[in-house]
Specification:
mainly beta; 7-stranded antiparallel β-sheet; two-stranded antiparallel ribbon; 1 helix; about 5% helix; globular
């Protein structure tokens, strides 16, 4: 973890907004990434002579409490109860260390990939990890 002026980023310094809720409190974790296939092109001998790149793909996941999931379901139009039916939405993730300016990453055109429930007797925190398809990630905006 990066240390800036003696202060580190921590989970309590993160603020997440999505689907009209400007302070989502029932988030246990969020992850997101951009991947791109890259491949060397070989000519004569055994050394690359160039490189090609494929399409960029943005994916992620968010871990929510059942209470947070139920809030999302309650706000959905009547007749539509699957999280996978929600139209694309943005998620903003803001964080700071109390010293530097606030940094905000914006995950644009997100959709839930799955809608699932998993409960177990020995669970102490009942959270569900839901996959995300993301259109574009704007880092540090």
């Amino acid at each position: 973890m990066a240390t800036i002026n003696g202060r580190t980023y921590q989970w309590s310094s993160i603020s997440i907004s999505m689907l009209g809720n400007t302070q989502v409190s029932g988030v246990g974790s969020i992850s997101y990434e951009v991947t791109q296939e890259k491949k060397n092109i070989y000519g004569a001998h055994n050394r690359p002579v160039g490189r090609v790149s494929g399409a960029k793909e943005c994916t992620g996941s968010i871990k929510l409490t059942i209470e947070e999931i139920n809030k999302i379901r309650a706000a959905m139009p009547t007749g539509s109860r699957s999280l996978t039916d929600i139209p694309p939405f943005d998620i903003t993730v803001s964080y700071n260390n109390g010293v530097e300016p606030i940094t905000t990453d914006t995950l644009r055109a997100c959709e839930f990939k799955d809608d699932k429930m998993s409960l177990a007797a020995e669970s102490t925190d009942v959270m569900q990890e839901l996959g995300l398809v993301i259109g574009v990630i704007d880092y540090g905006v």
